[in-house]
Design a protein that fits this description.
2 helices
Length: 73
């Protein structure tokens, strides 16, 4: 939102969506809640469960790239 990039209406069709941030002290659950709220105000159709899946996907994708485990698996 800070960079005003908008919302991708077809986000649910993207295969490897990962929710993440470049903030050092970020609270990812707060990021997920904010993202869910933003989707609703933009008329998106994703559910909170979709957002939580994206949050887990971020850990999974990073882990696959670095051959490490992130988050609780």
């Amino acid at each position: 939102m800070n960079n005003n990039v908008g919302y991708m209406q077809k986000l649910g069709r993207v295969r490897n969506v990962g929710l993440g941030t470049d903030g050092i002290r970020a609270n990812m659950f707060e990021e997920a809640k904010l993202h869910s709220s933003k989707i609703q105000t933009c008329g998106g159709t994703l559910t909170p469960n979709d957002i939580l899946r994206f949050l887990q996907n971020g850990n999974d994708l990073l882990g696959a790239l670095l051959n490490l485990k992130f988050g609780k698996n």
